[in-house]
């Protein structure tokens, strides 16, 4: 599995993650996260699909779902329809499948007074790459009460690609930064106040580069659940529990969801459970787990707003999963 790591030469890192005061460069806490590693989304996609007979279609926009006792059928914007035993909604934080299951009001994403810029960057010199990984080979974090939070993380060590992230509370909001020139100027000025390695992380972003901006939002699954239509329609990943990225648990929970849904389907195939029983059991475990991660991620984000960063979930528990 090392081929999916951001750095295949590293098995696991036991070194605590440094958390910086960006105005001074001091490390205010080293966050214990035993055996941490990071995987590449692109490498995972290649690993899971290469050599497999999979019918993957891109640029499809889901518009509707119909369910009978025997199947689920999905309809796309281009008019095409596909029928199967189940429809599994892995369609992100603005999930159409979630809206089908819960209705537009209950499925509506909750806007948070928080804004993020997050993008990959490459083109660093060997010296810059060494600096970006000198404090920790995988990731490092920073928080400033005045300028918000930042992260620099390895995305592909062999290609010298890094994730650059910054976020803040209050204005300017995503809608205030729709002009890409204004957005880039804002980003570079903000990161100029940060210490290394964050300043170097932002240094390769040149004039004319388009960097994305995201409005903070979340959705937590309700305690009482929903009608899964006999187990034929369910949710996984961000569609099931869309959380802020501050604890880094979105991917971990999505993998847990996928594994548990596969186990549920296998149990149905083997005659151990009905489809409704298996999917309902999956959802009954997933909902409280997902809701708690949404809550903790927001709590972590809010700790940077109210100055209680030292009491935040990240500082107390690191990246450990909720039990």
From TrEMBL:
<keyword id="KW-0560">Oxidoreductase</keyword>
<dbReference type="InterPro" id="IPR036188">
    <property type="entry name" value="FAD/NAD-bd_sf"/>
</dbReference>
<feature type="domain" description="FAD-binding">
    <location>
        <begin position="54"/>
        <end position="295"/>
    </location>
</feature>
<dbReference type="InterPro" id="IPR002938">
    <property type="entry name" value="FAD-bd"/>
</dbReference>
<keyword id="KW-0285">Flavoprotein</keyword>
<dbReference type="GO" id="GO:0071949">
    <property type="term" value="F:FAD binding"/>
</dbReference>
<protein>
    <submittedName>
        <fullName>FAD-dependent monooxygenase cctM</fullName>
    </submittedName>
</protein>
<keyword id="KW-0274">FAD</keyword>
<dbReference type="Pfam" id="PF01494">
    <property type="entry name" value="FAD_binding_3"/>
</dbReference>
<keyword id="KW-0503">Monooxygenase</keyword>
<dbReference type="GO" id="GO:0004497">
    <property type="term" value="F:monooxygenase activity"/>
</dbReference>
